[in-house]
Each structure stands twice: as C-alpha cells, then as structure tokens.
Amino acid sequence: MDELMEFLEELHPDVDYETCDTLIDDGILDSFDIISIISEVADMFDVTISAEYIVPENFNSAQALYDLITYLEDEG
Known about the structure:
The chain is an all-alpha fold. The protein has a single domain, classed as Non-ribosomal Peptide Synthetase Peptidyl Carrier Protein, Chain A (Orthogonal Bundle). Helix content is 57%, strand content 0%. It is built from 4 helices and no strands.
C-alpha cells in the first residue's frame, strides 16, 4: 500500500488519499490519471487491470484501488 500511496501522492500531491473516497465522483482523477495508474500498477504489482475492472468504485479511493490490486494478485 505504501508504494501505491507514494505514486498517488506524486500524481496529485494536494489530495488526502487516506480519507478521500470520491476520487472519481469529484473529478479529482481524470481519464489520463486512470491510464497512468493502470500502467504504474502493472509495473509495481505485476497485475493487469482489465476493462471489466475499470469502474469508478475501483478508483474512488486508494483503499478501493489497493483492494482491487490484492484481488488481482490472488487471482493471478
């Protein structure tokens, strides 16, 4: 989770990723951010986020994203 948080904080340093659960709903993350996150997650965690998992609820918070990564690692 620390690696993910470091990357997210580099992406948008002004966001409190510990508490924010509306990253998509509030427009904090845009489509370019999502692509960057998907690419970085692939490199960091060696998992592929396929199209079926690219839904707002998986990207609305750092915890939701980390839960998705953990799920994909377990599935892999």
